[in-house]
Amino acid sequence: MKNIFFFLLMIGMVPAFAQNPQVKTANGLLEGVTEASGIRSYKGIPFAQPPVGDLRWKAPQAPKNWTGARKADKFGPQAMQRFIFSDMVFRSDGKSEDCLYLNLWTPAKKGNEKLPVLVYFYGGGFMAGDGSELRYDGESMAKKGIVSITVNYRLGVFGFMAHPELTAESPNHASGNYGLLDQHAALEWVKKNIAAFGGDPSKVTIAGESAGSMSVSAQMASPLSKGLFNGAICQSGAILGNLSPMPREQAEQTGVKFATTAGANTLADLRKLSADKLLELSANTRFAHIIDGYFLTEKPEATFAAGKQMNVPLLAGWTSAEVGYQGLLGNHPPTLFIFKDAVQTLYPGNADKILDAYPATSDNEAKLAATQLASDRFIAYSTWKIIDMHSKSSKMNVYRYLFSQKRPDTTQVLIGAPHASDIEYSLGNLPLIKAFKWTPGDYKASQITQDYFANFIKTGNPNGKGLPVWNEVKSGKPPIQVLSAETIAKPDDTAKRYALMDELNTKK
């Protein structure tokens, strides 16, 4: 029998059970899977101890060691969350408070090569999301020579509740931001272990979309992040401008109010509640990022203004219709009269300024202007803000994009590419998303966008052979790279809009 095995080994026909790749990490041996493409995947890798029991609402603790080969062939559970977004399709096996796992795709290691690394944080408003979603799958990027990772982090009440008792028990005198600390712990794991998977710990790019993009900006602003990554990609969102974090004291009062509503007199009482009960009780309370005094020590604007953020190259942008005109006009028709009336209602003292920055003289122009204003109010302005501030205070290149490839979605009435639609294009995952009948134009847009992203991950510069030139942002002359099947660079036509958004945000 032994002779047969060695014969099969020599001719490359070892049975599947013998081909499972194994990697030794700091905590023990992992056994992954070799995909049909030859890419090796390792799913459900613990990067911290389960945050349950006394570890609920504590900073993530280092994972414990194990003996033998740990199977890494399936996704870990998703973080506790409600079903909120219909476009989220998970491959994980249910949800659990025990959710701190990451997933990794890597080309077969050859010698002592050191490959660039992508660490991707999912979106979902800090309330939903999971690293197992098809649109985040890392195999396509791994085919381009990049070690790709998706990370789970705590959400909602589990990931972001602050409370005076939690602050008092913390050795860092901080509470909240546990989800962001989870991401930080995953980056620490990457630094310690990625070389074993063929990755270069000195060439790590973090990326994310929406709440994931906000997370990227938070990691950039955190004093804890030094040395953990050397590039950043923000796809629609940043914790600047209108999405800046709240002070810890305010967040603590939200936690106190929630505890009272939950009938819990002490922190111990809150920890006794089941995860399902906590999820149910927190349905109407919003928990998100805060200035906790530890992970975030000041307003991010102050950090970026002083140039104290991570000094790394940045690629950032947003979609051409993050939300539709409905985000401003509700169910009312997008006529010129309705648009002007809505602006008068929302900006009673500044309506003339808004109408000057978002001009419209017809119903069609009003539809576009309403879409632009709704998108800026939602998330585009905050993304512009990090591009503007980082390009002024860092020493690294900054690249700005507008993703405009509209999906072949017959149900959508948007006049551009909707929020989150750029993910599957940029990560090369159109074939995995069966909800749309992708066209040759979609695949071309994906090829261009993914190549830009891959180049940036590898070199800090998106430019490369066969791609339209993408110029970096320079103070006073910020070009916009419009990403689509007909990718072009265009002059900035948004300066007036965002100068006004800045003015109005400063007055708050």
UniProtKB/TrEMBL annotation:
Pfam families: COesterase (PF00135). The keyword Nucleotide-binding does not apply. Its EC number is 3.1.1.-. It is an enzyme of class 3 (hydrolase). It comes from the Bacteria. Keywords: Hydrolase, Signal. InterPro entries: AB_hydrolase_fold, CarbesteraseB, Carboxylesterase_B_AS, Carboxylesterase_B_CS, Type-B_Carboxylest/Lipase. Residues 1-18 form the signal peptide. The keyword rRNA-binding does not apply. SUPFAM superfamilies: alpha/beta-Hydrolases (SSF53474). Residues 20-481 form the Carboxylesterase type B domain. Belongs to the type-B carboxylesterase/lipase family. PANTHER family: CARBOXYLESTERASE. This is Carboxylic ester hydrolase.
